[in-house]
Amino acid sequence: MTGRLDDEPYARAALTYLAEPADLRLDALVRARGAARTLEAIKAAPATAADPAARRAMARWQVRLAELPSADDIAGFCKAGIRLVCPGDPEWPVRLDDLGHASPYALWLRGSADLRFNCLRSVAIVGSRAATAYGSYVASEFAASVAARGWAVVSGGAYGVDAAAHRGALAADGVTVAVLACGVDVPYPAGHADLFDAITAQGVLVSEWPPGRTATRLRFLIRNRVIAALASGTLVVEAGRRSGALNSARHARDLGRPLMAVPGPITSDLSAGCHTIIRDWQGTLVTSAADVVECVSPIGTATDRAPAVLGRDALDLEEAAVLDALPLRGGRGPVRIAVEAGLDIDTVFRCLGALAAGGFAERCDQGWRARRA
Amino acid sequence: MTGRLDDEPYARAALTYLAEPADLRLDALVRARGAARTLEAIKAAPATAADPAARRAMARWQVRLAELPSADDIAGFCKAGIRLVCPGDPEWPVRLDDLGHASPYALWLRGSADLRFNCLRSVAIVGSRAATAYGSYVASEFAASVAARGWAVVSGGAYGVDAAAHRGALAADGVTVAVLACGVDVPYPAGHADLFDAITAQGVLVSEWPPGRTATRLRFLIRNRVIAALASGTLVVEAGRRSGALNSARHARDLGRPLMAVPGPITSDLSAGCHTIIRDWQGTLVTSAADVVECVSPIGTATDRAPAVLGRDALDLEEAAVLDALPLRGGRGPVRIAVEAGLDIDTVFRCLGALAAGGFAERCDQGWRARRA
Q1: B176-200 pLDDT, tens per residue?
Q2: d(CA A162, CA A13)
Q3: Backbone angles phi, psi at A320, to 5 degrees
Q4: Closest approach of chain B CAs to the CA of A125, in angstroms?
Q5: Does B258 touch chain A (CB under 8 A)?
Q6: Closest C-alpha among B71, B124, B131 to residue B296
Q7: Is B53 on the interface with A (CB under 8 A)?
Q8: Which of A278, B26, B300, B302 is least surrounded, with the fewest CB atoms within 10 Å of its CB?
Q9: ipTM of the complex in this document
């Protein structure tokens, strides 16, 4: 992000200021011309296109041109630990491509965890803001338990089920990902400022909106598709019949990802949405964290194994090559590992996931390193 | 039941004294020779058959010959309102034939309700003896609600879910059928003596065992297949992982009848069996009595209609003929109705069911009568 107009990452950052996510007209322009030329066109052109819809789109982007960040703003973001990830970057979660034309232009991140790697083995745990004691208990227990098994917990940072899920993962020293409907520097809800600080230290905050943006009702709905697309599968813990969590569940189903729900008393309105998912949406009824892991694992691979029960003999050739490329002290970035191992970056990420799950490798501040046996 | 040896009903009654239900060897003999000749053979033959299994069977029946009822005993049963129903009798529920070689030899009944007719539209509601407040509440609410819609409630007369289901149906002025694992004159459990009296007045007690027999653990298990076979479908409200209710559920599934379960908190051991039914046995998750009625109704016929919303024009020719054969005062038995209407007895039962459901006909002490519009 150098701030020059021909810089694609800068242009993508700028577009997150000018357009709301999932603006299909903007997506079409960026795919056709690239982000930098699209931004240039928005800055230069008066809204005079023949097509009225195209004119309206140009106009709605142009009204926000004054909001573009200055060089000082961007320096401030860097100082605050905020980073931008764009399609094609090593940390970009390729799963988001499943969203097609509604895929984010870019993501703003804040936190120590690698988004792409952690999403490879992750479960979205979502549900009602007004969770009952039952829902909060189940969300935090399941989150702690899947996190202890090496799965990241993705949620929305809201009160109720979301907060219980994040806290459960943090308590188990796991990684948790909060996908926000506001800027990653905006503590919304305000009561979660401490929670977001903890997630920044041990996980990552994610947003499609630039720093400073506030949440709106519509933004929560638009955000939900990203939660479903980032995670290996989505679990709904408690949800009323019209809960926003059902919106996330529908995205998971539409993406063909495993969809799960926790049953509850039929006398509780907050379990009605879960029962709908099980009965009418073919969601899997889960009653334990082991059920969840089984559901999101590729067939035949679900295990409750503790780290490092595999011998090195169980590694395939690529995994062994990546392990050989890892230092025992300090750390090494994925690109460097790819060069060392002679493998492409996607294979390196797959192998790092397998090695971490098997207890052979671990993340550190400098990238990755081998774990002593 | 005249007490003569060549009397098939008497012989079937006698066989319920000599053999436990579902004795496949006895079933084979009765099918081959009839009940009277089978009884005669048991009374006459020393246990000298060449086949050791046949010899052992004969011996186990003969040890109980001293328990056969006297003519006085039988007169006493009649006086106590106990009746015997055999295969082929108008009140015999033909659904039991689905049990094949494990079908009962005969059923002992006590109570005002017609067993066959009421089972045509019936739901078995079963579950744990140690039901929680949640299970008892759901069982009684669902039972009252399906009974108010004209469906009989079948259960096992035990503490917990069974009792709540019977009581819910009674409270809604509905018909309830208790299938016991002891004689219909044995108040077991003793605390249910009042409940059994109420069921006798407004429903019917059913047993494969003759009057006086006490319940054993094995008899409860053998009895469960009759609950599943009598009802249009089976609903499990609360059941632990090893509950006897799962045994009934398995019978319902094996018979191809609709199987339903009520979800509950995953933190409750008594809902674990229900979750197993939903997830692993393809049972339908139900959250309301309307769900239950929809599940047990033939496709497209489930309605929440109140009685008598249909006009006479909606009746088919056979239903209209049966309605014409019903008196407005007093009552008429099904055989007499069949003669009047010129229809076979099975068609008459089907039509009476439809007419009762539509509010055109009702049962009374003397049989059936038309309801005034």
Answers
A1: 999 999 999 999 999 999 999 999 9
A2: 27
A3: -65, -40
A4: 16
A5: no
A6: B124
A7: no
A8: B300
A9: 0.75
Residues B263, A275: C-beta atoms closer than 8 Å: yes
Bond before B187 cis per omega within 30 degrees: no
Full domain range(s) for residue A52: 8-68
Entry field: residues in chain B: 373
Cβ of B287 within 8 Å of Cβ of A265? The answer is: no
Residue B76, in any domain of the structure: no
Instruction: Please name the residue that has the structure tokens 């799963």.
Output: A95
Question: Is residue B306 one of the residues assigned to a domain?
Answer: no
Contacts of A271 in chain B (CB under 8 A): 263
- Residue A287 in contact with partner chain B when CB distance is under 8 A: yes
Question: Which residues in chain A have their CB less than 8 angstroms from residue B265's CB?
Answer: 134, 263-265
Structural domains of chain B, count: 3
A137 vs B267: CB contact, 8 Å cut-off?
A: yes
**Angle, alpha carbons A130-A135-A136 (nearest 5°):** 80
User: What is the pTM assigned to this prediction?
Assistant: 0.78
Instruction: Identify the pLDDT of residue B246.
Output: 92
Pick from A296, A322, A348: which residue ends a domain? A296
Nearest partner of B39 among B76, B3, B80, B90, judged by Cα: B3
Instruction: State whether A247 and A145 are in the same domain.
Output: yes
**What region does B212 belong to: left with phi over 0, alpha with psi -120 to 50, or beta?**
left
Inter-chain CB proximity B266 and A287 less than 8 Å: yes
B134 interaction partners in chain A (CB closer than 8 Å): 265, 267
Do both B33 and B143 map to the same domain? Answer: no
Question: What's the one-letter identity of residue B12?
Answer: R
Q: Can you give the pLDDT of all 373 residues of chain A as single tens digits?
A: 555 545 899 999 999 999 999 999 999 999 999 999 999 999 987 767 778 888 888 988 998 999 999 889 988 999 999 999 999 999 999 999 999 999 999 999 999 999 999 999 999 999 999 999 999 999 999 999 999 999 999 999 999 999 999 999 999 999 999 999 999 999 999 999 999 999 999 999 999 999 999 999 889 999 999 999 999 999 999 999 988 899 999 999 999 999 999 999 999 999 999 999 999 999 999 999 999 999 999 875 665 433 434 567 678 888 888 998 898 888 888 888 888 888 888 888 888 888 887 788 888 878 888 887 6
Residue A149 within any structural domain of the chain:
yes
3-state secondary structure of A318: helix
State the CATH number of the domain containing residue A344: 1.10.10.10
Same domain, yes or no: B167 and B231: yes
C-alpha distance from B84 to closest chain A C-alpha (Å): 41
> What are phi and psi for residue B129, nearest 5 degrees?
-65, -35
Query: Which of A68, A84, A111 marks a domain boundary?
Result: A68
In a 3-state reduction of DSSP, which class is residue B152? strand
Provide Rg for chain B, Cα atoms.
Answer: 21
In a domain, A359, yes or no: yes
Q: Which residue has the tokens 């108010």?
A: B148
Taking a contact as any Cβ pair under 8 Å apart, which residues of chain A between 133 and 162 contact chain B? 134, 137-138
Residue A184, domain CATH: 3.40.50.450
* Whether A286 and A325 share a structural domain: no
> Could you tell me if A264 and A353 lie in one domain?
no
**Predicted local confidence at residue A302, as pLDDT:** 60
Q: What is the mean pLDDT of residues B225-237?
A: 98
Task: Give the closest-approach CA distance of A14 to chain B in angstroms.
Answer: 47
Selecting from B263, B278, B284 the residue whose C-beta is nearest the C-beta of A264 gives B263
